[in-house]
Amino acid sequence: MRIRRSFQISSSIDFERKLFEWAKQYDDIIWLESNDHKDRYGAFNSALAVSSHTGQSRKRIESLDALQHFLSHTQDWLFGYFSYDLKNKWEELDSANIDRLCFPELSFFQPQKVILMQNDRVTFEYLSDNDQIDKDFEAISNIDLSPKASSQANAHIKIRMRIKKDQYFEKASRLLAHIKRGDVYEVNFCQEFYSENTTIDPWSTYERLNAISKSPFAAFMKLNQRYLVSASPERYLRRSGNTLISQPIKGTAARSVDAQEDKSLKEELRSNIKERAENIMIADLVRNDLSKNALKGTVEVAELCGVYSFEQVHQMITTIRCAVAPEKHALDLIRDTFPMGSMTGAPKVSAMKLIETHEETKRGLYSGALGYFSPSGDFDFNVVIRSILYNAQTAYVSYSVGSAITAKSNPEHEYQECLLKAKALRQVLESD
Fold it and tell me: Could you tell me which CATH number the domain at 2-151+159-430 has?
C-alpha cells in the first residue's frame, strides 16, 4: 500500500531542478524527464523513484523469473531497465564480445518513494511505512539552487574509439555485401567510444547533457555505482490500459543555427528516399512485432515518417499502436517486441547475428530500455540511445552510437551520422 498526496507548485521547472538535487542522498535512483515535450501518450512530465539501502521495504530484481513473479503478484511501482543482451534469453542468440561496463542484464527496484510531476502539480506516492511526504515536500521546496562553488566539469577525459575509421568502412562494406546477397534488408551498426581509468560527476554530466539536448525521454539512473546519463529521444514501448504504442526513430539530419537552412535540412530529411526507406522498413518490423499480441485488426500506423526537431538533430519518427487483451502479461508484450527494431534492423534475428559478428563490444544497457511498471499494470520504456554509461567501481565511461546500413548506404555518410549523434555526448564529457 502507498500513501498518496499532491501539492500545487508555482514553477515546475524550478521544482524539477530541486527534486533532482534532493535525490542525490539516495542509493537507488531513476529520474525520467520529458523536458516539456508534448506527448499525447505520456502519463507525466517527470518522475523520480528513489530508495535507500537501509530501507526494509527496498526490493531489487535482477532475474526474469523474479520480475515475472513480482508483476504477477504485486500491484506497485517498479523502475529499472532491460539490457540489449536479454535477446540471448529470448532468442537463440549469444554474445562473445567484451563487456567493460558489467551492468546486470536487467535491474529493477521497488522504490520507497515515487514523485510524479504533471504541469503545476506534484504527487508523492510513498510506501505506507514511510510517511515523510510533508517533510520531504518542504525540504525540496527550500533547496537553494544558487550556483555551487565546486567545479561542475569533467576534466582531462580522453575519449577513444573502439572501431577506427578504416575498420568502420571495412565492416560497413561487409554488411552491405550481406544486404546485396539478401541476408538482411537493414542492419543497425554501432560503435563504442570509451575512456578508461576515468572518474566523472554523473549528476553534473546529466545536467549539462540535458541542457543542450532537452530530449523527451531523458533519464538519469544510479544503481549500485552504475550510472546512466541519457538524452534519449525515442520511446520503445508504452502500455496504457489496453493500448500498446511504439515509436521507432529512423532518419537523422543535422540542425543549423540559420533558420532558413535549418528548415531546408528538415524538409530534405522529410523527402529523403533513403531515410524514408530506413524508417518504413523498421515500421514494418514493429508492426509485425506488435501483431504477435494484438487483437485482430487493431495494428495501425498512427503517423508515418513524421519529422521532429530536437536541440541537436532532426529525427524521423513513426508511431504504431494496437489493442491488446487485458490479461496479456507485460513481459510477454516486451519479450515479443524486444529489442527495439530501430536498434537491430530487419529481419530482426538475422540482423542481430550480424551485429554480434561486426561490432566489437557487447551493447549491454545501450540500445536496451529504461522505464517503469505502474501499479495499474501500465508501463513506459525509452530506448537507451544518446546515452553515457559509467561504472564508478571500475572507472570506465562509455557511449555508443550507430546508424542504419541499407542497400543505399554510403559508409562515409553513415560514419558522419555516427559522429553527429555522438557530438553532444563528447561535448559534455570533454568540457573543461
Answer: 3.60.120.10
